[in-house]
Amino acid sequence: MFFKKQLFGYNKADVDQIINKLTEDNQRLKNMIVDQEKNINELSDALSQMKEKENDIQKSLMDAKNIAEEIINEAEVYASNKKEEAKKNSSRIFNNFEKNFNEIVAIKREIVDLELKMKEEIREKVNFYLNQLDDIDVFGEQLDAKFIQIEDRFEQIKLELPDDKEYQKEAEVEEIPVYTFHTD
Predict the structure, then answer these.
(1) Which of 3, 23, 146, 151 would staple 10 via disulfide (CB 3.0–4.6 Å)?
(2) Torsions phi, psi for 158 (to 5 deg)
(3) Per-residue pLDDT tens for 12-61?
(4) Which SS3 state, helix, strand or coil, does residue 10 take?
(5) What digits encode the pLDDT tens for the residues 74-128?
(6) Where in this chain does the entry annotate a coiled-coil region (predicted)?
(7) What is the bridge-based pairing of β-strands 9-10 and 5-6?
(8) Where are the domains of the chain?
(9) CA quadruple 51, 54, 60, 66: dihedral, nearest 10
């Protein structure tokens, strides 16, 4: 913007127009400065609050780290104690297991022997009763019914008894085989 010169200096209307424009620009810049200062103050307050939160978070993190380290140390001590206790108990448990296992094996042998003996006694009694039935020479209805009952009971007992071959196989497994060698 240039002023046009006139006879007695610059044109007054141009100068007033420039002064008004400069006044408006000045006022606009003052308003911008006030707005920027307000914005700077708000940002400064927000920054201060963020710094306080950051300090609080750092303090909380340090507290959490210290607590975590204490928990880890306590857990390591606890685990070490439990490990030692388990080592001591495992030896005792193993010895008790071995003793109980040997006792169970001995009891099993006794049970197998008793079962074989009981089966033989039952067979003898069943055979005795069958022989008694063969000796009876009466053909009445009561005798036939009794005979059918005895036969049914005999079949039921035979079904309840396991096969002798299974017990013989078990007995053979527990016996030590004897071998004889001939030299020619």
Answers:
(1) 3
(2) -60, -40
(3) 788 888 899 999 999 999 999 999 999 999 999 999 999 999 999 999 99
(4) strand
(5) 999 999 999 999 988 888 888 888 889 999 999 999 999 998 999 899 999 888 8
(6) 12-70
(7) antiparallel
(8) 5-174
(9) -110
